[in-house]
Amino acid sequence: MSQDRVRVRGLTIHRPIIYGNTATLLTPAERELLPSPDHTHRWTVAVRSAASDDEGTRVGGKDDLSYFIKRVTFKLHETYTNSTRNIDKPPFEVTETGWGEFEIQIRIHFIPESGEKAILLYHHLKLHPWSATGTDSDVPPPPDVAAALGPVHSWQYDEIVFFDPFQQFLNTLTAHPPTPLPKTRRRPVPFHTANPASLAESRGGVPEFWAGMEKDEVERLERARKKVIAEQETWRTKLIEKEKELERLKRELGES
């Protein structure tokens, strides 16, 4: 057996990626030019490297991932013509127009030398800045407000981990180290509906993943945890007070 087809046991190597979408509200003039004038947004769903280029024109995508990714298959909503899109070269993305949000299946196929099975990811297409008001409302903002807020970004960071890789594949990966994420925040962070505060931060710019995001996310979750605990304690105190009041009323009724 060729040494290239021997697995390097006990070794793991990973590659950071992001997947998600950017959506822009169409103007009335743009909608008139579409075959389906009911479409309200133009969106792009993509799989990219986590690091962004210095131009700041898009989220991620500085590195060419085709050295280990052979194909990305995007499964769109069945109402789209040719709803299964196979992208065999970078950029691994699909751009469409539409009016509704739906779940997109993203299947990543690796180069044959990897000997790895394809992986399946899921992304819910985001078109509307649902948290534009900082509330939990399920109603998107009016078109003029959405247009002023700019493009909607919904991206997920992930790391593809390869266990016991073939030597040849390991050689390929090590020959293409990923660009490190910036250590400091250069642009607004990516946001999603669970983090409405960062929506305002993203106005007028393209978000970027950076090395400190994990720490920020941990701190945000810790703040949320403390808030939940405080709310639980508040309602626990109210419940105890109501139970005491109920017992008092029962005693009064029994004595009357």
UniProtKB/TrEMBL annotation:
Protein name listed in UniProt: Yeats family protein
Superkingdom of origin: Eukaryota
